[in-house]
Amino acid sequence: MVAKSYRPVQRDQLFLMDQDMREWLPKDHLVWWVLEVIERIDTSAFHQQRSRRTSAKSVAGQRGYDPDMLLGLLVFAYCMGERSSRQIERRCRYDITFRVACGGDVPDHTVISRFRSEFVGAFTSLFCEVLAVCAQAGMVRVGTVALDGTKIAANAALDQSRKESRLREIAEQVVTEAAAADESTLEDVDEGPSDQTGPQMGTPTARAMAAREALAQIAADRERRPDPEVAAAERAVKRAQDTVDEWETKVTTSYERQQKARAEGKPLPGKPMTHPDKHRGLRQRRERLEKWQKELAKRLADESERRGNLTDPDSRIMKERKGFGQDYNAQMVVSDDHFIVMAEATNTVSDRTLFEPMMAKAQANVAALPPDAQGAPRTIGKALADVGYFSVENLTCAGPERLIALHKSRELTTPRPSASKTSQQYRDRSAILAMEDKLSDPANQALYKRRGATVEPMNAHIKDLRGLRRFAMRGLAKVDGELKLAAAATNLMRYATTMGTVTT
């Protein structure tokens, strides 16, 4: 017997649903606000190449989806922390907010995935457009900005990394297999020509191409960031070679001039010179050059092999809080009111070389923003960076005024340990002393302590609220586009939170 005090459960009850989906959600809901922002910004870059309506149920000749709809859906999905194209498709079917975002025309997950992949280059303009919308509302205070980087996992496994020697073997394997296939075809001419590849040619070919790309990345890394011992030996060889060239020119010129004077019966000009091959000073310098050339060869032989990843050759093995991972280094410049003014994915392991290019790009983004409330153009006043960006070059390069920590100690007034007299830091000690003086000012100390509270929460928002702990795409260009998409969504959510008039 059913108790009469319970509410009845009537799953067969008929309803009259609202015919206008604008009545499904309140007017101040986040989805309406995101779609309004998409209507306000310039989306012409997304219309230059319309994405075809390709799905498991598509029909040839069917019209494509509206790029503005797909862009609005994708931005709203990232605002809600949903990045999986399959989950976005599922929520378009069963989640009323996503159904409103797609206008009831549910796109297949392949359409969403292709749209995100095809238009990664346009996400840069999207990021700048969204930042301008926030600035027009009186936000994006850039009197002080903070710079920091965070490691985000690549769409590649760490165990797919291989040493250079193994990558070369993989790259050469397909050549050997192709030659063997050609020989077998020539020997078996009675069966006629065949346009089919061997059953195992596809995967090795793809692996060989990935191995060659990984080797090219390693070569570029070695040129950009050589091994310190090898670089020192190369500099020594160059100095020794320059000295030998100088002495050879001087000794040879003097010897030939004296030989000419002797042939003409004239007095010898200067001290008598021996043949260059027998000149003691020149011979000593040639021996020194040979010694350094052997040392360079030894250091090159002893240099540890670098590694490349077969799945995503652009990614790098990077140090994380707990061990190592196959990652990208996501750099962000954040304003004092927690808006991301610049975001860029890099495969540079260290932050040290990224300060100047990141600040230059941040300044360009800020200069393109509308004027502030007083009508003055926006400029970055001061930049804050931790010790990971410390270098003499970063202390003295062009750009805004800066505060860069000189060590990891929480006490900024602690002097930096003295450098070796042979190091560049010792020779440019004046720049370090000037930064020490800046950091000893209590006002600058209080300002620098704002760095962690400014940029690190945005790192957390990108990872936790946007769900970007692992990139969905592969390759540096696509990864950078996805980061800018997540940064644009983060700025939109920050705008909505600041306005306080949007519900989710």
TrEMBL record:
Domain annotation Transposase DDE: ranges: 431-495
Region (Disordered) location: 178-205, 219-285
Compositionally biased region (Polar residues): 194-203
A Pfam family of this chain: DUF772
Listed Acidic residues bias regions: 184-193
Ranges where the Transposase InsH N-terminal domain occurs: 21-117
PANTHER family in the record: TRANSPOSASE, TRANSPOSASE DDE DOMAIN-CONTAINING PROTEIN
Name of the featured protein: Putative transposase
Organism the protein comes from: Gordonia rhizosphera NBRC 16068
Lineage per the UniProt record: Bacteria, Bacillati, Actinomycetota, Actinomycetes, Mycobacteriales
